[in-house]
Write a structure and sequence with these properties.
Layout (H helix, E strand, L loop, with lengths): L1 E6 L5 E7 L1 E6 L8 E6 L4 E5 L7 E4 L4 E5 L2 H4 L14 E7 L2 H4 L3 E2 L16 E4 L32 E2 L8 E18 L9 E8 L4 E5 L7 E20 L8 E11 L8 E3 L4 H4 L4 H8 E2 L7 E7 L5 E6 L5 E2 L15 E7 L4 E5 L2 E5 L4 E4 L6 E5 L8 E7 L7 E3 L5 E5 L8 E7 L10 E7 L5 E8 L3 E8 L7 E7 L2 E7 L3 E5 L5 E5 L4 E8 L8 E2 L7
Parallel strand pairs: 17-19
Antiparallel strand pairs: 1-2, 1-4, 3-8, 4-7, 5-6, 5-8, 9-16, 10-12, 11-16, 12-15, 12-16, 13-14, 13-15, 18-36, 19-20, 20-27, 21-26, 22-25, 22-27, 23-24, 23-26, 25-28, 29-30, 30-31, 31-38, 32-37, 32-39, 33-36, 33-38, 34-35, 34-37
Protein backbone atom coordinates (compact mmCIF):
# COMPACT_ATOMS: atom_id res chain seq x y z
CA UNK A 1 0.00 0.00 0.00
CA UNK A 2 1.30 3.44 -0.99
CA UNK A 3 -0.01 6.71 0.41
CA UNK A 4 0.66 10.01 -1.35
CA UNK A 5 -0.02 13.32 0.37
CA UNK A 6 0.44 16.95 -0.52
CA UNK A 7 1.25 18.93 2.64
CA UNK A 8 1.52 22.64 3.33
CA UNK A 9 4.24 24.29 5.41
CA UNK A 10 2.30 23.46 8.60
CA UNK A 11 2.10 19.77 7.55
CA UNK A 12 -1.63 19.96 6.99
CA UNK A 13 -2.91 17.50 4.35
CA UNK A 14 -4.05 19.26 1.17
CA UNK A 15 -4.60 16.15 -0.95
CA UNK A 16 -4.33 12.39 -0.41
CA UNK A 17 -4.48 9.17 -2.43
CA UNK A 18 -3.85 5.50 -1.57
CA UNK A 19 -3.21 2.37 -3.59
CA UNK A 20 -0.54 0.18 -5.15
CA UNK A 21 -0.29 2.20 -8.35
CA UNK A 22 -1.68 5.66 -7.81
CA UNK A 23 -1.97 9.05 -9.44
CA UNK A 24 -2.73 12.09 -7.31
CA UNK A 25 -4.05 15.18 -9.11
CA UNK A 26 -3.48 18.39 -7.19
CA UNK A 27 -5.25 21.33 -8.82
CA UNK A 28 -3.74 24.26 -6.95
CA UNK A 29 -0.60 26.30 -7.30
CA UNK A 30 2.22 25.16 -5.02
CA UNK A 31 3.12 27.55 -2.21
CA UNK A 32 6.48 27.96 -0.42
CA UNK A 33 6.86 25.22 2.16
CA UNK A 34 4.60 22.73 0.36
CA UNK A 35 5.83 19.15 0.19
CA UNK A 36 4.92 15.70 -1.08
CA UNK A 37 4.96 12.85 1.39
CA UNK A 38 5.09 9.21 0.29
CA UNK A 39 4.49 6.36 2.73
CA UNK A 40 4.86 2.68 1.84
CA UNK A 41 3.51 -0.01 4.18
CA UNK A 42 4.97 -2.94 2.25
CA UNK A 43 8.12 -2.25 0.32
CA UNK A 44 10.98 0.19 0.55
CA UNK A 45 11.43 0.28 -3.23
CA UNK A 46 9.00 2.51 -5.12
CA UNK A 47 8.74 4.05 -8.59
CA UNK A 48 8.00 7.77 -8.31
CA UNK A 49 7.21 10.63 -10.66
CA UNK A 50 6.38 13.75 -8.69
CA UNK A 51 6.20 16.14 -11.65
CA UNK A 52 5.53 15.88 -15.39
CA UNK A 53 9.03 17.22 -16.10
CA UNK A 54 10.83 14.57 -14.02
CA UNK A 55 11.77 11.13 -15.25
CA UNK A 56 10.22 8.23 -13.35
CA UNK A 57 12.78 6.94 -10.89
CA UNK A 58 13.14 3.69 -8.93
CA UNK A 59 14.04 4.76 -5.42
CA UNK A 60 14.98 3.05 -2.19
CA UNK A 61 13.31 4.76 0.78
CA UNK A 62 14.74 4.14 4.25
CA UNK A 63 12.03 3.93 6.86
CA UNK A 64 9.39 3.43 4.19
CA UNK A 65 8.62 7.13 3.87
CA UNK A 66 9.87 10.08 1.85
CA UNK A 67 9.34 13.77 2.50
CA UNK A 68 9.93 15.66 -0.77
CA UNK A 69 10.06 19.42 -0.40
CA UNK A 70 8.72 21.11 -3.53
CA UNK A 71 11.91 22.78 -4.89
CA UNK A 72 10.31 26.06 -5.96
CA UNK A 73 13.44 28.11 -5.25
CA UNK A 74 15.64 25.73 -7.27
CA UNK A 75 13.31 25.94 -10.27
CA UNK A 76 14.26 29.59 -10.51
CA UNK A 77 17.97 28.96 -9.99
CA UNK A 78 18.77 26.33 -12.54
CA UNK A 79 18.17 22.76 -11.19
CA UNK A 80 14.90 22.18 -13.03
CA UNK A 81 13.09 23.37 -16.13
CA UNK A 82 11.07 26.59 -15.90
CA UNK A 83 7.82 24.65 -16.24
CA UNK A 84 8.61 22.26 -13.36
CA UNK A 85 6.20 22.40 -10.41
CA UNK A 86 4.51 25.41 -12.03
CA UNK A 87 0.93 26.24 -12.96
CA UNK A 88 -2.12 25.20 -10.93
CA UNK A 89 -2.45 21.57 -12.01
CA UNK A 90 -0.06 18.83 -10.93
CA UNK A 91 0.06 15.10 -11.56
CA UNK A 92 1.93 13.06 -8.93
CA UNK A 93 2.34 9.31 -9.32
CA UNK A 94 3.88 6.40 -7.47
CA UNK A 95 3.70 2.65 -7.86
CA UNK A 96 4.99 -0.51 -6.30
CA UNK A 97 7.74 -2.22 -8.27
CA UNK A 98 7.68 -5.95 -8.81
CA UNK A 99 10.88 -7.77 -7.92
CA UNK A 100 11.74 -8.79 -11.47
CA UNK A 101 11.66 -5.17 -12.56
CA UNK A 102 13.56 -3.73 -9.62
CA UNK A 103 16.33 -6.34 -9.36
CA UNK A 104 16.97 -6.47 -13.10
CA UNK A 105 20.17 -5.23 -14.73
CA UNK A 106 19.65 -1.54 -15.55
CA UNK A 107 20.89 2.00 -15.01
CA UNK A 108 20.72 2.02 -11.23
CA UNK A 109 22.08 5.54 -10.67
CA UNK A 110 19.04 7.42 -12.03
CA UNK A 111 17.13 9.49 -9.47
CA UNK A 112 15.59 12.63 -10.87
CA UNK A 113 13.97 13.12 -7.44
CA UNK A 114 17.23 13.32 -5.53
CA UNK A 115 17.46 16.36 -3.26
CA UNK A 116 20.57 18.36 -2.44
CA UNK A 117 21.78 17.78 1.11
CA UNK A 118 20.55 15.04 3.41
CA UNK A 119 19.72 11.72 1.75
CA UNK A 120 15.97 11.21 1.70
CA UNK A 121 15.93 8.60 -1.02
CA UNK A 122 18.52 6.53 -2.83
CA UNK A 123 20.42 6.63 -5.10
CA UNK A 124 21.73 9.90 -3.66
CA UNK A 125 24.55 12.04 -5.06
CA UNK A 126 26.74 14.24 -2.91
CA UNK A 127 30.13 15.92 -3.19
CA UNK A 128 32.67 17.54 -0.93
CA UNK A 129 32.44 20.81 -2.88
CA UNK A 130 29.95 22.61 -5.11
CA UNK A 131 30.87 25.72 -7.07
CA UNK A 132 29.39 28.77 -5.29
CA UNK A 133 26.85 26.35 -3.71
CA UNK A 134 24.73 27.18 -6.75
CA UNK A 135 21.80 24.83 -7.55
CA UNK A 136 22.83 24.66 -11.21
CA UNK A 137 26.01 22.91 -9.95
CA UNK A 138 24.53 20.56 -7.31
CA UNK A 139 25.72 16.95 -7.24
CA UNK A 140 22.13 15.72 -7.74
CA UNK A 141 22.20 17.19 -11.26
CA UNK A 142 24.58 14.44 -12.39
CA UNK A 143 22.08 11.61 -11.75
CA UNK A 144 18.82 13.23 -12.91
CA UNK A 145 18.86 11.69 -16.40
CA UNK A 146 19.24 15.00 -18.31
CA UNK A 147 22.19 15.03 -20.74
CA UNK A 148 22.82 18.43 -22.36
CA UNK A 149 26.52 19.11 -22.06
CA UNK A 150 27.34 21.49 -24.95
CA UNK A 151 26.80 24.58 -22.77
CA UNK A 152 27.04 25.45 -19.07
CA UNK A 153 24.68 27.13 -16.64
CA UNK A 154 20.99 26.67 -15.88
CA UNK A 155 18.73 23.76 -16.84
CA UNK A 156 19.09 21.84 -19.15
CA UNK A 157 22.81 22.64 -19.10
CA UNK A 158 23.13 22.10 -15.36
CA UNK A 159 25.88 19.82 -14.04
CA UNK A 160 27.95 18.99 -11.01
CA UNK A 161 30.79 21.45 -10.85
CA UNK A 162 33.41 21.48 -8.16
CA UNK A 163 35.49 24.38 -9.30
CA UNK A 164 39.17 24.40 -10.13
CA UNK A 165 40.27 21.87 -7.50
CA UNK A 166 42.09 18.55 -7.39
CA UNK A 167 40.78 17.35 -4.01
CA UNK A 168 37.24 16.74 -5.26
CA UNK A 169 35.12 13.79 -4.23
CA UNK A 170 31.82 12.87 -5.86
CA UNK A 171 29.72 9.99 -4.51
CA UNK A 172 26.63 8.12 -5.63
CA UNK A 173 25.27 6.34 -2.56
CA UNK A 174 22.79 3.51 -3.16
CA UNK A 175 21.74 2.97 0.45
CA UNK A 176 21.75 -0.74 -0.31
CA UNK A 177 24.05 -3.43 -1.65
CA UNK A 178 24.35 -3.38 -5.45
CA UNK A 179 26.46 -5.06 -8.11
CA UNK A 180 28.02 -2.73 -10.72
CA UNK A 181 30.11 -3.46 -13.82
CA UNK A 182 29.85 -0.38 -16.07
CA UNK A 183 29.92 3.40 -15.71
CA UNK A 184 29.31 5.93 -18.48
CA UNK A 185 30.57 9.49 -17.97
CA UNK A 186 29.27 12.58 -19.76
CA UNK A 187 31.72 15.42 -19.19
CA UNK A 188 30.55 18.97 -19.63
CA UNK A 189 31.88 19.96 -23.04
CA UNK A 190 31.37 23.70 -23.36
CA UNK A 191 34.79 24.12 -24.92
CA UNK A 192 36.85 26.34 -24.73
CA UNK A 193 35.12 27.62 -21.57
CA UNK A 194 35.59 24.18 -20.09
CA UNK A 195 38.60 22.04 -19.67
CA UNK A 196 38.12 18.39 -18.74
CA UNK A 197 39.45 15.73 -16.42
CA UNK A 198 41.91 13.42 -18.12
CA UNK A 199 41.44 10.76 -15.44
CA UNK A 200 39.67 9.85 -12.24
CA UNK A 201 39.81 6.95 -9.79
CA UNK A 202 36.67 5.04 -8.84
CA UNK A 203 36.38 3.77 -5.28
CA UNK A 204 33.95 1.08 -4.04
CA UNK A 205 32.75 0.32 -0.51
CA UNK A 206 34.93 -2.81 -0.27
CA UNK A 207 38.02 -0.61 -0.69
CA UNK A 208 38.78 -1.70 -4.26
CA UNK A 209 39.48 0.80 -7.04
CA UNK A 210 39.17 1.25 -10.80
CA UNK A 211 40.80 3.87 -13.01
CA UNK A 212 39.10 5.80 -15.82
CA UNK A 213 40.71 7.98 -18.48
CA UNK A 214 38.81 10.55 -20.55
CA UNK A 215 39.00 12.49 -23.81
CA UNK A 216 37.71 15.99 -24.31
CA UNK A 217 34.56 14.97 -26.17
CA UNK A 218 30.81 15.49 -25.86
CA UNK A 219 29.87 11.84 -26.16
CA UNK A 220 29.55 9.43 -23.27
CA UNK A 221 32.72 7.60 -22.22
CA UNK A 222 32.29 4.14 -20.75
CA UNK A 223 34.47 2.07 -18.47
CA UNK A 224 33.65 -1.59 -17.95
CA UNK A 225 35.09 -3.83 -15.27
CA UNK A 226 34.51 -7.07 -13.43
CA UNK A 227 31.28 -6.83 -11.44
CA UNK A 228 31.69 -6.04 -7.79
CA UNK A 229 29.36 -5.58 -4.87
CA UNK A 230 29.26 -2.17 -3.26
CA UNK A 231 26.99 0.30 -1.48
CA UNK A 232 28.44 3.37 -3.21
CA UNK A 233 30.55 4.57 -6.12
CA UNK A 234 32.97 7.39 -5.26
CA UNK A 235 35.03 9.40 -7.74
CA UNK A 236 38.37 10.62 -6.37
CA UNK A 237 41.80 11.80 -7.58
CA UNK A 238 40.48 14.07 -10.32
CA UNK A 239 43.26 15.07 -12.75
CA UNK A 240 42.72 17.90 -15.24
CA UNK A 241 44.21 17.74 -18.68
CA UNK A 242 45.84 21.15 -18.47
CA UNK A 243 47.26 23.56 -15.90
CA UNK A 244 46.66 25.96 -14.28
CA UNK A 245 43.43 24.43 -13.08
CA UNK A 246 40.34 25.63 -14.87
CA UNK A 247 36.65 24.75 -15.19
CA UNK A 248 35.71 21.09 -15.46
CA UNK A 249 32.33 19.56 -14.69
CA UNK A 250 30.31 16.35 -14.84
CA UNK A 251 26.99 16.52 -16.67
CA UNK A 252 25.87 12.96 -16.01
CA UNK A 253 27.15 9.70 -14.61
CA UNK A 254 25.30 6.50 -15.52
CA UNK A 255 26.06 3.47 -13.37
CA UNK A 256 24.87 0.10 -14.63
CA UNK A 257 24.24 -3.00 -12.58
CA UNK A 258 21.57 -4.43 -10.32
CA UNK A 259 20.39 -4.22 -6.75
CA UNK A 260 21.20 -7.38 -4.79
CA UNK A 261 18.18 -9.07 -3.29
CA UNK A 262 18.52 -10.04 0.34
CA UNK A 263 17.74 -13.70 0.85
CA UNK A 264 15.47 -14.14 3.85
CA UNK A 265 14.31 -17.62 2.90
CA UNK A 266 16.99 -19.34 5.00
CA UNK A 267 17.13 -19.28 8.75
CA UNK A 268 19.98 -17.09 9.96
CA UNK A 269 22.06 -18.71 12.71
CA UNK A 270 23.93 -16.61 15.25
CA UNK A 271 26.44 -17.93 17.76
CA UNK A 272 26.46 -17.06 21.43
CA UNK A 273 28.73 -14.15 22.32
CA UNK A 274 31.10 -13.86 25.26
CA UNK A 275 30.67 -10.81 27.50
CA UNK A 276 34.43 -10.19 27.56
CA UNK A 277 34.64 -10.26 23.76
CA UNK A 278 31.65 -7.93 23.37
CA UNK A 279 33.58 -5.18 25.17
CA UNK A 280 35.78 -4.82 22.10
CA UNK A 281 33.06 -4.86 19.42
CA UNK A 282 32.71 -1.95 17.02
CA UNK A 283 29.27 -0.53 16.32
CA UNK A 284 28.95 -2.66 13.19
CA UNK A 285 30.13 -5.78 14.99
CA UNK A 286 27.73 -5.19 17.87
CA UNK A 287 24.82 -4.83 15.46
CA UNK A 288 25.92 -7.90 13.53
CA UNK A 289 25.72 -10.01 16.69
CA UNK A 290 22.61 -8.64 18.39
CA UNK A 291 20.56 -6.37 16.08
CA UNK A 292 17.78 -7.77 13.86
CA UNK A 293 16.46 -5.68 10.96
CA UNK A 294 14.05 -6.40 8.10
CA UNK A 295 11.78 -8.57 10.21
CA UNK A 296 8.79 -7.95 7.96
CA UNK A 297 9.21 -8.29 4.21
CA UNK A 298 6.43 -8.96 1.72
CA UNK A 299 5.37 -12.64 1.48
CA UNK A 300 8.36 -13.79 3.48
CA UNK A 301 9.22 -15.33 6.84
CA UNK A 302 12.48 -14.07 8.29
CA UNK A 303 13.96 -16.29 11.03
CA UNK A 304 17.00 -15.79 13.25
CA UNK A 305 18.21 -18.72 15.35
CA UNK A 306 20.35 -17.66 18.29
CA UNK A 307 22.51 -20.08 20.22
CA UNK A 308 21.75 -17.96 23.28
CA UNK A 309 19.18 -20.29 24.90
CA UNK A 310 18.37 -21.41 21.31
CA UNK A 311 15.64 -18.83 20.90
CA UNK A 312 14.23 -18.22 17.42
CA UNK A 313 13.01 -14.74 16.54
CA UNK A 314 10.92 -14.45 13.39
CA UNK A 315 8.66 -12.13 11.45
CA UNK A 316 6.05 -13.38 8.96
CA UNK A 317 4.33 -10.94 6.64
CA UNK A 318 1.87 -12.60 4.26
CA UNK A 319 0.46 -10.26 1.63
CA UNK A 320 -0.63 -12.21 -1.43
CA UNK A 321 0.59 -15.62 -0.29
CA UNK A 322 -0.17 -17.97 2.57
CA UNK A 323 3.06 -18.54 4.50
CA UNK A 324 3.85 -21.89 6.09
CA UNK A 325 6.14 -22.20 9.09
CA UNK A 326 8.93 -24.56 8.01
CA UNK A 327 11.47 -26.32 10.21
CA UNK A 328 14.51 -26.08 7.96
CA UNK A 329 17.65 -28.16 8.24
CA UNK A 330 18.91 -25.97 11.11
CA UNK A 331 16.40 -27.65 13.45
CA UNK A 332 16.92 -31.20 12.17
CA UNK A 333 13.22 -31.74 12.85
CA UNK A 334 10.28 -33.05 10.84
CA UNK A 335 8.28 -29.91 11.63
CA UNK A 336 8.92 -26.61 13.39
CA UNK A 337 7.28 -27.39 16.75
CA UNK A 338 8.44 -30.99 17.03
CA UNK A 339 10.59 -30.04 20.02
CA UNK A 340 9.59 -26.40 20.47
CA UNK A 341 6.87 -24.04 21.66
CA UNK A 342 6.15 -20.59 20.30
CA UNK A 343 4.36 -17.33 20.93
CA UNK A 344 3.09 -14.89 18.33
CA UNK A 345 1.73 -11.34 18.46
CA UNK A 346 0.21 -9.66 15.42
CA UNK A 347 1.60 -6.12 15.03
CA UNK A 348 0.02 -5.43 11.61
CA UNK A 349 -3.45 -5.61 10.08
CA UNK A 350 -5.98 -8.38 10.64
CA UNK A 351 -4.73 -11.88 9.86
CA UNK A 352 -5.43 -15.57 10.33
CA UNK A 353 -3.23 -18.28 11.84
CA UNK A 354 -4.21 -21.84 10.99
CA UNK A 355 -2.92 -24.55 13.34
CA UNK A 356 -3.44 -28.12 12.15
CA UNK A 357 -6.59 -27.06 10.33
CA UNK A 358 -8.03 -24.81 13.06
CA UNK A 359 -8.27 -21.12 12.19
CA UNK A 360 -7.61 -18.32 14.68
CA UNK A 361 -8.49 -14.76 13.74
CA UNK A 362 -5.73 -12.41 14.82
CA UNK A 363 -6.63 -8.76 15.17
CA UNK A 364 -3.93 -6.13 15.72
CA UNK A 365 -2.15 -6.79 19.05
CA UNK A 366 -3.75 -10.24 19.44
CA UNK A 367 -1.37 -12.87 20.77
CA UNK A 368 -1.33 -16.66 20.71
CA UNK A 369 0.61 -19.46 22.38
CA UNK A 370 1.17 -22.64 20.34
CA UNK A 371 2.47 -25.68 22.16
CA UNK A 372 4.93 -28.39 21.19
CA UNK A 373 3.62 -31.04 18.79
CA UNK A 374 1.47 -28.89 16.50
CA UNK A 375 2.55 -29.78 12.99
CA UNK A 376 1.19 -27.41 10.35
CA UNK A 377 1.09 -23.66 10.99
CA UNK A 378 0.22 -21.12 8.30
CA UNK A 379 -0.19 -17.35 8.22
CA UNK A 380 -2.33 -15.18 5.95
CA UNK A 381 -3.65 -11.63 5.79
CA UNK A 382 -7.30 -10.69 5.58
CA UNK A 383 -6.62 -7.46 3.65
CA UNK A 384 -3.68 -7.24 1.25
CA UNK A 385 -3.83 -3.45 1.54
CA UNK A 386 -3.21 -3.74 5.29
CA UNK A 387 -1.26 -6.96 5.74
CA UNK A 388 -0.77 -8.75 9.02
CA UNK A 389 2.68 -8.83 10.62
CA UNK A 390 3.19 -11.84 12.85
CA UNK A 391 6.03 -11.45 15.33
CA UNK A 392 7.19 -14.87 16.57
CA UNK A 393 9.34 -16.11 19.45
CA UNK A 394 10.12 -19.79 19.88
CA UNK A 395 12.28 -21.82 22.27
CA UNK A 396 12.86 -25.51 23.07
CA UNK A 397 10.14 -27.29 25.05
CA UNK A 398 10.01 -30.43 27.17
CA UNK A 399 6.24 -30.74 27.58
CA UNK A 400 3.08 -30.04 25.60
CA UNK A 401 0.58 -27.39 26.60
CA UNK A 402 -2.61 -26.42 24.74
CA UNK A 403 -2.90 -23.60 22.25
CA UNK A 404 -4.26 -20.43 23.85
CA UNK A 405 -5.26 -17.23 22.07
CA UNK A 406 -4.64 -14.13 24.18
CA UNK A 407 -5.90 -10.81 22.88
CA UNK A 408 -4.63 -7.65 24.55
CA UNK A 409 -7.74 -7.37 26.74
CA UNK A 410 -7.01 -10.80 28.26
CA UNK A 411 -3.37 -10.04 28.98
CA UNK A 412 -2.50 -9.32 32.60
CA UNK A 413 -1.83 -5.61 32.93
CA UNK A 414 0.87 -4.44 35.29
CA UNK A 415 1.15 -0.63 35.58
CA UNK A 416 4.56 0.58 36.70
CA UNK A 417 6.91 3.53 36.61
CA UNK A 418 6.05 7.19 37.06
CA UNK A 419 5.80 10.44 35.14
CA UNK A 420 8.55 11.92 37.33
CA UNK A 421 10.96 9.14 36.34
CA UNK A 422 9.93 9.32 32.64
CA UNK A 423 9.09 5.59 32.67
CA UNK A 424 5.34 5.32 33.25
CA UNK A 425 4.20 2.25 31.34
CA UNK A 426 1.86 -0.71 31.27
CA UNK A 427 3.24 -4.25 30.96
CA UNK A 428 0.81 -6.55 29.13
CA UNK A 429 1.71 -10.12 30.07
CA UNK A 430 0.51 -12.52 27.36
CA UNK A 431 2.46 -15.75 27.89
CA UNK A 432 3.03 -15.78 31.62
CA UNK A 433 2.41 -18.23 34.51
CA UNK A 434 -0.39 -15.99 35.84
CA UNK A 435 -2.15 -16.04 32.46
CA UNK A 436 -1.49 -19.50 31.05
CA UNK A 437 0.94 -22.41 31.09
CA UNK A 438 4.02 -22.79 28.92
CA UNK A 439 7.31 -24.63 29.31
CA UNK A 440 9.84 -21.80 29.48
CA UNK A 441 8.69 -19.12 27.07
CA UNK A 442 7.41 -15.81 28.45
CA UNK A 443 6.16 -13.04 26.19
CA UNK A 444 4.38 -9.72 26.47
CA UNK A 445 3.95 -6.16 25.27
CA UNK A 446 5.03 -3.06 27.19
CA UNK A 447 3.49 0.29 26.26
CA UNK A 448 5.02 3.55 27.42
CA UNK A 449 2.71 6.47 28.08
CA UNK A 450 3.15 9.86 26.38
CA UNK A 451 5.92 11.82 28.07
CA UNK A 452 7.78 8.67 29.13
CA UNK A 453 10.74 7.28 27.24
CA UNK A 454 12.72 5.00 29.58
CA UNK A 455 12.00 1.30 29.79
CA UNK A 456 13.29 -0.84 32.63
CA UNK A 457 15.15 1.91 34.43
CA UNK A 458 16.74 1.33 36.88
CA UNK A 459 18.19 -1.41 34.73
CA UNK A 460 18.66 -5.05 35.62
CA UNK A 461 20.15 -8.33 34.55
CA UNK A 462 18.78 -11.85 34.92
CA UNK A 463 21.47 -14.49 34.68
CA UNK A 464 18.97 -17.29 34.43
CA UNK A 465 17.12 -15.95 31.39
CA UNK A 466 17.91 -14.18 28.14
CA UNK A 467 15.56 -11.75 26.41
CA UNK A 468 14.70 -10.40 22.97
CA UNK A 469 13.14 -6.96 22.56
CA UNK A 470 11.22 -5.87 19.45
CA UNK A 471 10.53 -2.14 19.33
CA UNK A 472 7.41 -0.76 17.63
CA UNK A 473 4.96 2.16 17.52
CA UNK A 474 7.80 4.46 16.51
CA UNK A 475 7.75 7.26 13.96
CA UNK A 476 10.07 7.58 10.97
CA UNK A 477 12.55 9.82 12.76
CA UNK A 478 12.22 8.21 16.19
CA UNK A 479 14.83 5.97 17.73
CA UNK A 480 15.41 3.95 20.87
CA UNK A 481 18.89 3.73 22.34
CA UNK A 482 18.87 0.14 23.60
CA UNK A 483 21.33 -0.25 26.47
CA UNK A 484 23.31 -3.45 26.82
CA UNK A 485 26.59 -4.80 28.06
CA UNK A 486 27.76 -5.65 31.55
CA UNK A 487 26.84 -3.01 34.15
CA UNK A 488 30.42 -1.76 34.32
CA UNK A 489 30.93 -1.84 30.51
CA UNK A 490 27.75 -0.54 28.92
CA UNK A 491 27.11 -0.25 25.21
CA UNK A 492 24.14 0.85 23.13
CA UNK A 493 22.46 -0.09 19.85
CA UNK A 494 20.28 2.42 18.01
CA UNK A 495 16.91 0.82 17.22
CA UNK A 496 14.24 1.90 14.75
CA UNK A 497 10.65 0.83 14.25
CA UNK A 498 9.95 -2.92 14.10
CA UNK A 499 13.53 -3.91 14.78
CA UNK A 500 14.60 -6.46 17.38
CA UNK A 501 17.64 -6.91 19.58
CA UNK A 502 18.99 -10.00 21.32
CA UNK A 503 19.87 -9.33 24.95
CA UNK A 504 22.10 -12.01 26.58
CA UNK A 505 21.66 -12.91 30.22
CA UNK A 506 24.91 -11.12 31.16
CA UNK A 507 23.67 -7.85 29.71
CA UNK A 508 21.66 -5.09 31.28
CA UNK A 509 18.14 -4.64 29.94
CA UNK A 510 17.11 -1.05 29.39
CA UNK A 511 16.51 1.60 26.76
CA UNK A 512 15.53 5.20 26.16
CA UNK A 513 13.65 6.63 23.20
CA UNK A 514 13.26 9.99 21.53
CA UNK A 515 9.58 9.73 22.53
CA UNK A 516 7.21 7.10 23.92
CA UNK A 517 7.04 3.73 22.13
CA UNK A 518 6.12 0.10 22.72
CA UNK A 519 8.15 -3.09 22.74
CA UNK A 520 7.50 -6.82 22.75
CA UNK A 521 9.67 -8.82 25.13
CA UNK A 522 10.27 -12.54 24.95
CA UNK A 523 12.26 -14.52 27.51
CA UNK A 524 13.43 -18.07 27.91
CA UNK A 525 15.94 -19.88 30.04
CA UNK A 526 16.12 -21.42 33.48
CA UNK A 527 12.80 -20.23 34.91
CA UNK A 528 9.70 -18.11 34.27
CA UNK A 529 9.81 -15.93 37.35
CA UNK A 530 9.13 -12.44 36.03
CA UNK A 531 10.61 -10.89 39.16
CA UNK A 532 13.82 -12.91 38.94
CA UNK A 533 16.01 -9.89 38.29
CA UNK A 534 19.25 -8.54 39.63
CA UNK A 535 18.62 -4.79 39.82
CA UNK A 536 21.47 -2.41 39.13
CA UNK A 537 21.52 0.96 40.84
CA UNK A 538 21.89 3.70 38.26
CA UNK A 539 24.85 5.20 40.10
CA UNK A 540 26.73 1.89 39.61
CA UNK A 541 26.44 1.91 35.82
CA UNK A 542 29.47 2.73 33.69
Amino acid sequence: MITLKVLNKDKEVLALEKGRSITLNYNKEYQPGDSIRLESSIDKFVAVKFDKTLEESFVFIPGKSLEYDIPLANVRTGCYGAEAFSEDSHTISAREIDEEEFYSYRKISLNSHDIHGKARSFPHAHANFVTREAPMFYARNAIDGVIRNELHGSFPYHSWAGGAREDLEFTVDFGHLVSVDKIVFYLRADFPHDTYWKSVDIEFSDGSMEHAEFEGIKEGQAIEFEARETTYVKLVNFKQVSYPLSWAALTQVEIFGNYIKEDFSKMEVRQASNAKDAKHYTTDRLREEFHIANLFTKDNTRMIYSHIDRIITAGAMPVFQVLKLEAGKELAADYFLQRREMGCINVGGKGIITIDGVEYEMNPRDGIYIGMGNKEITFKSVDTEDPAKFYISSCPAHATYPTVKIDITKAKKVPCGSVEDCNKRVINQYIHPEVMKSCQLSMGLTQLEPGSNWNTMPSHTHDRRMEVYMYLDMGENDAVFHMMGEPNETRHIVMHNEEAVISPSWSIHSGVGTRNYSFIWAMCGENQEFTDMDHIETKELR
